[in-house]
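Lab notebook, design round three. We kept the backbone fixed and only want residue identities now. Task for the bench partner: fill in a sequence for the structure below.
Input structure tokens:
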């Protein structure tokens, strides 16, 4: 049950609601945040530091296309990609004729595609008809915070996100432990093969939000599938994103580790960035 559908049900005098099945309550507490492994030193993963987070709640999976469509229908919201008239799409998702569109200088696999948006992830001739349970993409940080306000939540802090992603494990590299994903044993939705050439996957894109096994806290896809926007502002670098995506691979973007960090501009949208919500613990009935 989505939280937005639950607003108003089971509300007590303090305006609390019952916890939907799609949300996990986390006790919080102290944990070791960060990593001593300097895979991307500029990202500021280290040093390992003892971090404390207060009790909070978080979505078990990323916001889906179906849930975002409910938000748009109820609010009339127009995303920034729709207002700008374009968004970034991975080149292999485009027809051969469209691959000549403008690319990003340092990442030429990203192409500026007219009319690409959350409803048309690969541009004007695409749709989300078969992807209702996939994570919504082509949503900016600003779009995500607008959805959060409508749904009664907020974006998680980086500390909350990492605490949740670790699933109770201590200093492990991934949400499931230290085992490396491989082409033979994927474990999460990341790139398979040699990036950025053709992936070994039939469709190297998003997967349903509940694909793969959840971590120890019952949270899905805290590694891979799509990046999660976080609340933190990292100054001129932009807003924090965590978790990696279906385009990550150890040979290039080894950021599907739980300590890994990256950033993007708050008005930026791409085909591999989504989000999940966090909630203050006081929102729910004890």
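Proposed sequence:
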């Amino acid at each position: 049950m989505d939280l937005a559908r639950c607003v108003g049900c089971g509300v007590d005098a303090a305006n609390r609601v019952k916890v939907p099945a799609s949300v996990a309550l986390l006790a919080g507490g102290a944990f070791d945040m960060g990593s001593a492994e300097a895979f991307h030193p500029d990202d500021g993963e280290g040093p390992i530091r003892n971090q404390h987070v207060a009790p909070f709640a978080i979505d078990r999976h990323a916001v889906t296309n179906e849930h975002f469509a409910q938000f748009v229908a109820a609010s009339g919201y127009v995303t920034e990609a729709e207002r700008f008239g374009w968004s970034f799409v991975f080149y292999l998702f485009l027809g051969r004729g469209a691959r000549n569109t403008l690319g990003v200088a340092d990442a030429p696999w990203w192409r500026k595609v007219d009319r690409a948006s959350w409803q048309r992830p690969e541009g004007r001739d695409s749709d989300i008809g078969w992807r209702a349970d996939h994570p919504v993409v082509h949503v900016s940080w600003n779009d995500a915070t607008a959805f959060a306000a409508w749904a009664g939540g907020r974006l998680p802090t980086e500390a909350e996100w990492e605490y949740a992603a670790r699933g109770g494990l201590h200093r492990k590299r991934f949400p499931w432990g230290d085992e490396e994903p491989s082409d033979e044993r994927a474990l999460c939705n990341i790139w398979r093969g040699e990036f950025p050439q053709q992936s070994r996957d039939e469709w190297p894109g998003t997967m349903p939000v509940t694909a793969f096994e959840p971590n120890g806290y019952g949270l899905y896809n805290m590694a891979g599938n799509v990046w999660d926007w976080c609340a933190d502002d990292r100054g001129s670098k932009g807003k924090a994103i965590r978790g990696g995506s279906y385009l990550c691979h150890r040979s290039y973007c080894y950021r599907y580790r739980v300590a890994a960090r990256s950033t993007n501009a708050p008005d930026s949208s791409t085909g591999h960035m989504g989000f999940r919500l966090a909630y203050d613990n006081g929102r729910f009935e004890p």
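Keep this in mind before ordering anything: The first strand starts at residue 23 and ends at 26.
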